[in-house]
User: What shape does this take?
Amino acid sequence: DIQMTQSPSSVSASVGDRVTITCRASQHITKYLAWYQQKPGKAPKLLIYSVSSLESGVPSRFSGSGTGTDFTLTISSLQPEDFATYYCQQVNNFPLTFGGGTKVEIK
Amino acid sequence: QVQLVESGGTLVRPGGSLRLSCAGSGFTFSDSYMSWVRQAPGKGLEWVSDIGPTGGEIYYVDSVRGRFTISRDNAKNSLYLQMNSLRAEDTAVYFCARDPQRGDGHTFNSWGPGTMVTVSS
Assistant: This one.
């Protein structure tokens, strides 16, 4: 199974800050990586697919990058509605696996 | 628009059985890969099972293989998860999710609100 390791597990930031979350896969997954946002009591929402493609309707302050085993989600200017937990997911091999999550909290 | 609604979650005793359902609308259900993803209280996301459009492809996470069975009825636009021999560690919110198969792997761009399964005596 492919293990997905996210860091940090939590980050405190202020509105307007640039936030970067990293995700490392235990083996190469080429372009098959997605990022989701989840707010308390809600279903996850797809933000980024294929490493860097923005899902329709997602603000352009979200971006993804990386290749092979190391990937990054960047929020260029944090907005109040962005305080949430973010998960990466490898979407190539079964079993599909998620990272442990990164909680973005208000500083 | 795409809508997924789960049902069937409840309190069940260890060793018991439960069947979850997910009704889909707003998209061509019979063309879609569908998955179940769960989230234990206060924990992260865990993919559980996936089924191809015709039911010919089925995958499970190891922890549920042999106990859970995924199925679908395309005539009813419905996805199911039969859960047997339930354990306390199966306690979670269960989400159904749609994989639109855009050539980007198994990415989930639509999710239901989830249904809570509690396994406890």
In short: Chain A has a mean pLDDT of 97. The interface with chain B takes residues 31-32, 34, 36, 38, 42-46, 49-50, 53, 55, 87, 89-92, 94-101 of chain A (CB under 8 Å). Chain A has no helices and eleven strands. The longest strand of chain A covers residues 19-25.
